[in-house]
Amino acid sequence: MTSVHGANPLRDAADRRLPRIAGPSGLVIFGVTGDLSRKKLMPAVYDLANRGLLPPGFSLVGFARREWQDEDFTKVVHDAVKEHARTPFREEVWQQLIQGMRFVQGTFDDDDAFERLRGTIEELDKAQGTGGNFAFYLSVPPKSFPVVIQQLKKHGLADQTEGSWRRAVIEKPFGHDLRSAEELNAIVHEVFAPDQVFRIDHYLGKETVQNILALRFANQMFEPIWNRSFVDHVQITMAEDIGIGGRAGYYDGIGAARDVIQNHLLQLMALTAMEEPASFDADALAAEKTKVLGAVRLPRDLGRGTVFAQYTAGWQGGEKAVGYLQEEGIDPASKTDTYAAIKLGIDNRRWAGVPFYLRTGKRLGRRVTEIAVVFQRAPHSPFDTTATEELGQNAVVIRVQPDEGVTVRFGSKVPGTSMEIRDVSMDFAYGESFTESSPEAYERLILDVLLGDSNLFPRTEEVELSWKILDPIEEHWDGHGRPAQYPAGTWGPVEADEMLERDGRSWRRP
Amino acid sequence: MKIDLTDTTASKINKALVQGRRAIGTPAVGMVLTLVIVTDEENAYDALRAANDASREHPSRTLVVIKRVSRSPRNRTSSRLDAEVRVGAEAGTGETVVLRLYGEVVDHAQSVVLPLLLPDAPVVAWWPVNAPLDPAKDPLGALAQRRVTDTYAAETPVEELNARAKAYTPGDTDLSWTRITPWRSMLAAALDQVSCEVKAVEVEGEEFNPSCELLAMWLADRLDVPVKRSLSSGPGLTAVRMDTSCGSIALGRSDGALATLSIEGQPDRAVALKRRETAELIAEELRRLDPDDTYASVLRYGVDRLTAAAAPAEPPAGETADEGTAAAGASEGAAAQAPAKKAATKAPAKRAAAK
Q1: Considering A154, A171, B186, B235, which has the largest number of Cβ atoms within 10 A of its Cβ?
Q2: Distance CA A355, CA B257 (A)
Q3: Is the CB of residue A360 less than 8 Å from the CB of residue A260?
């Protein structure tokens, strides 16, 4: 029983008021007691229901070790929704959701629990009309992946019967190097077909990231200059002001590059640099992203083209912050990078010779993610040098978060009798031109999973290509000395500044 | 911040807008459209409040055109424009100008509005009450890409629907139509779950609620089956019952908030289907500014049927129709639309500003 949109006479492509509602389906969350589940997934489910985007009878099943009854689970969801949902709480929406909520108690190696889960799903098919369509959201530590996947297989939970679907949703990290990523993919694909596996990179669910494609390919004014003839270089930054918080166990040994560059930053780079896809469907997009990731060239001298560093004690925004090595649960001899900056080239006709600088770090000046495309200086200026002394390079900056929007920076005459040209910026702010409450990334992504729309999910090849880019860098860092240091609350180590200085450039202050 | 201007002109208002923006320190303009609300003093407050709420989703410049009633010949010949310019916190996320027109200028409101439209941005006109018969030909309506009326607020909604159908111009839309989007989407979702053919439909709702007629016409138009409209005491729409080749499908809502979807052979399910506030309706209207072809087709359907089928008897009021009789009752008269009265009756003229 698939959704028969083609056959449904009430569906009409021209009727654009009718939202894309997911077909009959349910969502099973493993690790439902975790932070992500409470802060993001449950509220996202509620928000979707509140916006009328979930099918009648949508079911939510929690699976965890806690000794809970259905009622305890409902209470937890209720509290999570009240606290974190984006849209106001409405009793009638809650009444609709509550009917399909179930909790299954058990550990991941407990066969009985998975049998109970199967029973629950069968019961929901009868009671709620979910039609056998279930997505399994694995919000679990990487080491539990294989067990859960195998258990799903063993108990026939991954089997798609006639006309129904079973999907797996997995979160980063997708391995910690190429080999482990391949292993993980092998495990998952043995049980779920590749097109039924959805890898969540929540950055791709953000409106601003999707807007990169709109900005580039729906407009005429940017694309003609989006190439090596006009672009000097590109800087992609993702900075966090927080430290590692309670994630010491996960973070140590992984580091900033694996945690952020491998997935988020390389995806942002792919979207910024890729050629125009033949159409806006999942296959065409993936094809272009794969092409550009495949064309990435590492710097010849990894020591000069990359920087890794750790934060030391300092002051971050008026608060005293301890250094990384002093954080609780961190080995004082740890070499894990909390800051990483790398310089990449793309070997194709459009980008040859244009460096892409990617940097990410914890305990930096402020929380910001942005893509800055910096243009070359005008080849000739009729103004004398004193007039343009303060003129920088033109830039288009896509602000991914916070304060989502696009900034264009260019020179303008300062009012007055003398000719003096200075940088000004022209701003487009999402919050100002569109809704105050644009949907959370998870809302969009969960809906897409239920609809089976894989536009916004990285594929196996993309993940593996990203590891191919990062592995040699990590290897180099392993073998070459200790990370550089930067005081918490600054914009990174001097080594990173020097790296750009050697190229005659400098980092933007985001 | 609020600036009051008495006996003023559009250019002075424009100056006040710039001055207001400067004063609150946000000289950049990120507004995406101009919303022109044409109303009387009585409805201005509620309409403006709804528009301000909607402006959180669509930052806009809101122009409220209030045509004041002149009660003496002297008043009618003299003419005056007063304006209240609001920017910042008092105007949602955009800017608001409340324009009060007295005397002769009442008939030339477009001359005040035109200079105040945002450059290069779409214009939406909204009449919360007393919409003109042909919105596209109205001098204010002609400035707008999208014209929002509300037949729910009309004296005789069904006749007004007829008039809307006749005068339809791409870009017209009606809040009675907006109100049923959740119903339509839930009914479509219900049909997603089964693959069977619909044979007859019954739409039940309160009297004088054109949303019921519009929903009935939409179902008839899409499904090409007889649709019966029956009455209940509300609130709003109360039920849609579909007789299909695999049993009955019913969506019922008695309390205006929580509905029950029953599909034969499946358990009943509760679905949230709350009646929405005007602000939400306006926000939905502003989301898409292209012509609504589905609405056009639904309106057109109604007119065709009403003139073709020689108006079958009004459905017996108060009859609690059960699934069984729904199909039978409707099958005789192709599609029994609503209280289909004389099609050609003149729709109520604009209840003129001056009584």
Answers
A1: B186
A2: 57
A3: yes
Positions of A marked catalytic: 264
Q: Which CATH class is domain A26-171?
A: alpha beta
Helices (H) and strands (E) counted in chain B, each on its own, are 11, 14
Retrieve residue A95's tokens.
């009444």
Known binding site for substrate: residues of A? 202, 206, 240, 259, 362
What DSSP character marks residue A37?
I
Q: Tokens 């409340």 identify what position?
A: B98
Q: Does the beta carbon of A23 lie under 8 angstroms from any beta carbon of chain B? A: yes
- Residue B318, burial from CB neighbour count under 10 angstroms (0-12, 13-18, 19+): exposed
In this complex, do A56 and B189 lie within 8 Å of one another by their Cβ atoms? yes
What residues does B125 pair with on adjacent strands? B36, B147
Whole-structure pTM value: 0.81
Q: How many CB atoms lie within 10 A of CB B128?
A: 24
Of chain A residues 48-77, which have a CB less than 8 A from chain B? 49-50, 52, 55-57
Q: Residue B138, exposed/middle/buried by CB under 10 A (0-12, 13-18, 19+)? A: buried
The SS3 of residue A137 is strand
* Distance linking the first and last C-alpha atoms of chain A: 50
Read off the pLDDT of residues A279-315 as tens digits, 9 standing for 90 and up: 888 899 999 999 999 999 999 999 899 999 999 998 8
The DSSP secondary structure of A250-273, one letter per residue, reads HHTTTHHIIIIIIIIIHHHHHHHH
Q: pLDDT-derived band of residue B325, with 50, 70 and 90 as boundaries?
A: very low
Task: In whole angstroms, give the CA distance from residue B237 to residue B80.
Answer: 44
Domain ranges of chain A: 26-171, 204-374+456-502
Residues of chain B with CATH 3.30.360: 179-331
Q: Measure the CA–CA gap between B251 and B249, rounded to whole angstroms.
A: 7
**Angle, vertex CA A325, rays to CA A340 and CA A315, nearest 5:** 80
Q: Are B202 and B240 in contact (CB under 8 A)?
A: yes
**Tokens 């500044």, located at residue:** A497
The yes/no answer to whether this complex scores an ipTM above 0.90 is no
Task: Return the H-helix or E-strand segment holding A321.
Answer: strand A319-321
Do A10 and B266 lie within an 8 Å CB cutoff? Answer: no
Nearest by CB to A56, from B93, B261, B293: name it: B261
| Residue-wise pLDDT tens digits, B177-192 | 999 999 998 898 888 7
Q: Name residues whose C-beta falls within 8 Å of residue B183's C-beta, 6 or more positions apart in sequence.
A: B215, B237, B240, B251, B273
Identity at A388, one-letter amino acid code: T
Terminal CA-to-CA distance of chain B, rounded, Å? Answer: 35
**What CATH code is assigned to B179-331?**
3.30.360
Q: List the one residue out of A200, A176, A183 whose CA is nearest residue A251.
A: A176
Fill in the DSSP letter of residue A41. Answer: I
How many A×B Cβ pairs under 8 Å? Answer: 127
Task: Work out the minimum CA distance from A115 to partner chain B, whole angstroms.
Answer: 24
Q: What CATH fold (topology level) applies to the domain A204-374+456-502? A: Dihydrodipicolinate Reductase; domain 2 (3.30.360)
- More confidently predicted of A236 and A378: A236
Closest CA to B133 of B322, B350, B343, B346: B350
The reply to whether A129 touches chain B by the CB within 8 Å rule is yes
- Distance CA(A262)–CA(A467), nearest Å, equals 7
Tell me the two tokens of residue A17. Answer: 């008021």
Q: Residue B102: CA atoms inside 13 Å, Cβ hemisphere, count?
A: 16
Dist. CA B136–CA B193, nearest whole Å? 40
What pLDDT, on a 0 to 100 scale, did the predictor assign at position A243? 86
Inspect the interface and report whether the beta carbons of B192 and A52 lie closer than 8 Å: no
Whole-number Å distance between alpha carbons of B165 and B176: 14
- Contact A24/B193, CB-based, under 8 Å? yes
Helix axes A145-154 and A111-128, enclosed angle (nearest 10): 60
**A221 CA to chain B: closest CA distance, Å?**
18
